[in-house]
Amino acid sequence: MRFWIAGTLLLSAGLARADHMHTVDHGDDGHAFGAGVTMIAASFDQPLYTGNYQGVVPAVQWANERFAAGTSVALYRLEENGAEFYGFGDFVIHGQAMLIGNHHRHAGVVAAVSAPIGDDRRGMGMGHPMAMPALFGTWMVERFAVAATAGYSRALGADSGHDHGMWPIVEPMNMQEFTWSASGDYAFTPHVHGGARFSGGVPIGNGDNRIIGAARVAWGSGRFSTAAELQAGIAGDPFTVRGVVSTAVSF
């Protein structure tokens, strides 16, 4: 869930301009509609749970020069402590506004909200809504691009005396935390680029620090784009290793 948000928000700042990543072809009116699917496979080894999961995440998005909005929901197969379960993850909707945008720099704000449709007893959902506002910025020069986000995530409507720790299994986070990410990319050709990304969460109050590192490669031409990312859980036991492959088309 949160991976799709972070990846989409960081990328869409550049995609809205389509001047560096070359993966969105806006129509004559400057608007673009997109649809995509992300496939996830991960293994985890936490103090109370061990196992693996696979997920399919369809998503839709609309974007123009300054604004973007999108939704996604995941369907998971989860094996935890030898038991197997199938079900949906939480539903996510987000909106984004770019406040600064030119050929080399982009910055803006984003707000995402999740609805708890996933089974929190099995580790597929948070069990309550989450609000996730953030700031983002990108800087591009020649073949290089760097990006960063700083945000805040908080459970909505949850019992203030209840703290379930890092949850859910498929995308663990704290009930209240500061979030961050930083990434760098190099364009090998006009249609192929690759790089590295780090992201994490710092709990507010009780909780655990979380850090994820990833290497990725992406390629696209015209209306189509595909990206692959190999992630490692560095701190906080979010997972041991996770592979993510995404493909998208714009209209």
Specify the biggest β-sheet. Answer: 12 strands, antiparallel, barrel
Flag low-confidence runs: 1-26
On the 0-100 scale, what is the average pLDDT?
A: 85
Radius of gyration: 17 Å
In whole angstroms, the N-to-C terminal distance is 24 Å
The string of secondary-structure elements, in order, is HEEEEEEEEEEEEEE
Shape label: globular
Task: Give the DSSP E fraction (strand runs of 2 or more residues).
Answer: over 45%
Q: Helical region count?
A: 1
Strand order in the sheet with the most strands = 1-2-3-6-7-8-9-10-11-12-13-14
- Percent of residues in helices comes to under 10%
- By secondary-structure content and strand pairing, the structural class works out as mainly beta
Total beta-strand segments: 14
Describe the structure using short key phrases.
251 residues, mainly beta, twelve-stranded antiparallel β-barrel, 1 helix, 14 strands, 6% helix, 61% strand, globular, disordered N terminus
What does this structure look like?
The protein is mainly β and 251 residues long. It has one helix and 14 strands; from the N terminus they run H-E-E-E-E-E-E-E-E-E-E-E-E-E-E. It has one helix spanning 2-15, and strands at residues 32-45, 50-63, 67-72, 75-80, 83-88, 91-101, 105-115, 130-141, 144-155, 176-189, 192-203, 210-221, 224-235, 241-250. It has a twelve-stranded antiparallel beta barrel. The longest helix is centred in the first third of the chain and has 14 residues, at 2-15. The chain is globular, with a radius of gyration of 17 Å. Residues 1-26 have low confidence and may be disordered.
